[in-house]
Amino acid sequence: MIKVKEKSVISKRADGKECEDGLFVSDDFICVVDGVTSKGKWTWDGHTSGYYAKELVLKAMEKLPADITGEKAVEFLNQAIADGYTPERREEALHNSDEKVQANVIIYSAYRNQIWSFGDCQCIINGKIFAHEKKFDIILSNMRALYLELERICGKTEEELISHDTGREFILPILKKESLLENSESEYDIVNLNGFEINTDKLIKYYLLEGDEVVLASDGYPELKTTLKESERKLAEILDKDPLCYKDYLSTKGLKEGNASFDDRTYISFTV
Questions:
Q1: Residues 238, 216: contact at Cβ < 8 Å?
Q2: What 8-state DSSP symbol labels residue 243?
Q3: Distance of alpha carbon 244 from alpha carbon 239, whole angstroms
Q4: For residue 130, what is the enclosing H or E element?
């Protein structure tokens, strides 16, 4: 029996719109889904590709069989994204990979009493954190931090860089190529759902015991804590000290002018 303690989904935008994170809760599953930030130009039913991916996954979770295995679950959700492409857009995305519809998920299965991680969402199990950071993102976050530091040395203010993030622009051409590494055997492998071929060997499983305390979250929390209040407090502290996210917490993106955070964020804590 799942006992949910806290849950929250918050958009990075101050108006709360176009949130690319989502949360699904039922008697059988808990799923945090993080639609990958769009780097292309297409919109999907008037939304970003990340928002569209999130909506496709949430709808598919409603049909997920309770006794499904982790491998079959990510295949099922990946097919839901595949079905979200029109034939024309699917063909175009094959040749223009930054237009793919992509999502990361972390799922708790009550039937299996397991957590399934596919991508860079986070979890805490009995106080121990598992962040699932990508090597690709760590490298690009350092590249962006270096570029922004050089910009500061050349005289640009943090306010100017928040308004126009030249560090993000610097790494964007490489970010647009990240899908070339999706579900590959490279040490820089990118794991996510994309509606094309995925490697279920990349699925990470955690086996739980009755009474275990669990937190599932997207990567919108720089330092995930065992309570929502503490996770939010730490995020606020980082954004106050380092809104560009290039000194205290390194990221591929920082706080945009007019936004409430650098990324959408989802949090749920529960006991199994």
A1: no
A2: T
A3: 8
A4: strand 128-130
Residue 92's pLDDT is what? 87
Name the token pair of 14: 């101050």
- Among residues 225, 252, 255, 226, the alpha carbon closest in space to that of 238 is found at 255
Strand boundaries in 28-102, DSSP class E: 29-35
For 199, other C-beta atoms within 10 Å of its C-beta total 14
Q: Minimal CA–CA distance to 97: which of 168, 187, 175, 20? A: 175
265-271 and 3-10 beta bridge pairing: antiparallel
Q: Residue 1's pLDDT band (boundaries 50, 70, 90)?
A: confident
For the record, the structure tokens of 2 come out as: 């799942």
Distance CA 123, CA 49 (A): 25
Cα 218 to Cα 9: distance, rounded to the nearest angstrom: 10
pLDDT tens for 193-249 read 999 989 999 999 999 999 999 999 999 999 999 999 999 999 999 999 999 999 989
Measure the CA–CA gap between 35 and 99, rounded to whole angstroms. Answer: 13
